[in-house]
Amino acid sequence: MQYDLIVIGGGPAGLMAAGSAAERGARTLLLERMPRIGTKLRITGKGRCNITNARPIEDYLPFLHGNVTLAQNALQRFSNEQVVQLLNAEGVPTILERGDRIYPLSGRASDVAEAFVRYCTRHGVTLKTETLVTSIEAAESGWNVTTQEGNSYEAKVLILACGGRSYPRTGSDGAGYELAAMLGHTTTEIFQTLVGFTVNTDFTLRERFLVKNVGLKLLAHGKEIAVQTPVDIELVDAWIGGPGVLRLSRLAMEHLRAQEQVSLQIDFKPALGEQKLLARLQRDIQERRAEVLRSVARAWMPEGLVKPILRRARLSPQTKVGMLKAKELQSLCDALKCFTVTLLEPDDWDRAVVTAGGIKNEEIDPQTLCSRIHPNLYFCGELLDIDGNTGGFNLQLAYSTGFVAGCEAVKAIATLQPE
To answer: Average pLDDT, stretch 100-123?
Structure first.
């Protein structure tokens, strides 16, 4: 059977592209290499799925990177409100949480994935899983797509929605860039983002330790370039991550890739100025002079931080607090307010959330997402040179670009219909 449209990739962008095209009458085939549709979507947000961000679309700009013009065009055509309406119609109620983040009310990412599957199947999309595309060739009728099993499929129009390189175990291992290269397209240098980092300090924590409500300053060559507060972070061994670090990771990666020294300054007591913190330390010490520092320090910080903080301040945990000198107290205050670590290496692709970079901007029409090399080829999702901060922005980019690619593919199909 010849299809009007083949979509390669069953992530959120591919599902949105296939569903929106089929809804408008296109005979659509979606090919997914993994055993289940939406594998990555089912684990996103630690299995809860931060569907999108509720802030107005016009306020997304500071949270986007790469080809921002392309991203804005797509977001205007399919908004966060529209994806929520779609999911509600498919039986998935949503809830608004801190940071304008929208989640499924059930707290299950799988519900979101299944809703997109229902949306596609309800409009007649043919879904084929465990189907790895190995070659694409231009044919008289449009495109000929061949799979690893030797099967061949034909369509008038083709959409590549294969994802980037992040979380390769979910199917997005960079194969989409190879398929694009077969068709003459080139890619910017890609790199991982929304990642944690190894650092030059061992926090002496052997399991991930969550620290809430800290302040973060990102520095490049000692110069402050970004601030986040209050945010949560995670520490383990010589590694730092968590929501606050993910928000700064895109900027940190840019400076690391420029061979700059990048560091992170942690304020474990952002609600207290230095003088107020010193006054509190002094008050507690006066009341508990006979106790050792290790015991008293638990009043100032979570127990998991006592060892690394005291080590940074060069103080013995067994010191009687009544014996602390003013200089030592200042060192303790500095360690709590200005704990600086140097970022060494980002997490590898297996742990990266998002891919930065993609198909070169000049090779894609930013309004239609159509290839400027092949008139009936479209791109969407992480293959594009767009990415966003943590908070639901990347998934929204996937839905929006998928919608545009699907709708524009239908227009192209209409021009190819015989008179």
So the answer is: 98
Q: Quick one: pLDDT at residue 418? A: 64
Residue 214's identity, in one-letter code, is: V
Question: Which of 72, 114, 75 lies closest to 92, judged by CA?
Answer: 114
Tokens found for residue 42? 């089912």
Report pLDDT digits (tens) over 116-126.
Answer: 999 999 999 99
- Interatomic CA distance for residues 244 and 62, integer angstroms: 16
Rg (CA), the chain: 25
pLDDT at 139 over 90: no
Classify the C-alpha dihedral 134-138-144-150 as positive or negative: negative
pLDDT digits (tens, 9 = 90+) for 220-266: 999 999 999 999 999 999 999 999 999 999 999 999 999 999 999 99
Separation in Å, CA 104 to CA 36, 50, 84, 401: 20, 8, 9, 21
Instruction: Kindly state the tokens that stand for 78.
Output: 């399919």
Hey, what are 187's tokens? 């890619």
Categorize the per-residue pLDDT at 140 as very low, low, confident or very high, splitting at 50, 70 and 90: confident
Tell me how far apart the alpha carbons of residues 91 and 94 are, in angstroms, rounded to a whole number.
Answer: 10
Do the beta carbons of residue 148 and residue 367 sit within 8 Å?
A: no
State which H helix or E strand residue 174 sits in.
none
Determine if the pTM surpasses 0.85. Answer: yes
Phi then psi for residue 155, to 5 deg, are -155, 155
Q: What's the Cα-to-Cα distance from 173 to each of 223, 339, 350, rounded to whole Å?
A: 36, 36, 9
Q: What angle do helix axes 68-77 and 393-416 make, rounded to 10 degrees?
A: 80
Coil, strand or helix at 352? coil
